[in-house]
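Practice problem: predict the structure.
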Amino acid sequence: MILHILKVNCLVAVSKHEPSVKLEPVKSTVNQQPSTDLTRGIGAALLASSIWGGMYVISRIVLGVIPPITLVCIRMLVSALAMFIFLKFRNLKWRLPREIWTRVLLMGIVGYTISISAQFIGTKLAGAALGSLITTASPLVTVALSAFLKLERVKPKAWFGLGLGLLGVILTSTGSSDINPLGILALVVAAVTWGVLGLIGGQVVTKHDPMAVTAWASVIGFFGTLIIVPFELSSNSIGTITPGIFLGILYLGVVSTAIAFAAWVYGVSRAGSVLSGIAFFAQPVVGSILGFFLLHEQLGWNFVAAAVLLFVGAILARPEARESKGNLGLSARDGN
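Answer:
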């Protein structure tokens, strides 16, 4: 996503396999591969954001039985177990090199301990609508940090597209009466820390298996929340675990964490933070659709208008095929 090494790897690969990079077949191969990676990255990011849209419906139910920090701890444990089983079944490497452990540790603390905990707390206090609205703003944080740190060339058109997407999110999330200052603050923390995770994770998964990285980050997130669980349970007890609640826990741990997180970091590594951030705006739309069918929530004109704004925003923020110096691996010329 972020590293210049993508460009270097692309050039080295060409120099090793072809005696002259001026040959037409070599040019064709170099130009086509980034397009394939970009498409896969978009698809992975859309899959992750769609799963997270459904997560708000499921978590809204499960949080009525299990306190938020405890639920995050259980979610991280189930997620880590699922991903390590997957790695073992596919005979994939689960060990990580020592030099990336600092960033994996930051992913577990910033993204999985702080951000997800803040998201669950904010959703419980302020409601699912505001949770969907505020946490979906995290791509703006990623874009701002990318521009500030000069990690990615962000054009005015991309900023405008993100603005339209955010406006669509606002329309999708209107009508909530659960205004809780502490809940809103928690959701803002969740959005900011998730935006930071977009940068940290992208720098790690460009050279390492996203599933292994996510698995170990989930382990860190588990121990990070486990420390807080006894204090939470001292004043908030766990309710009755019905089969439906158990299935909800499996969804949160296996689908919305193990599968979605791995898909997201893969999407960021292939499509870059800006384009993946646009795909993140699909989250509230999917959540609204599932809320309509599963929770019988009413959808009005604002839902249709939001869908249009999100689509237009995604088109405007799509990077040009000939952009150069894209440190996040967005440009076709640099290579992904």
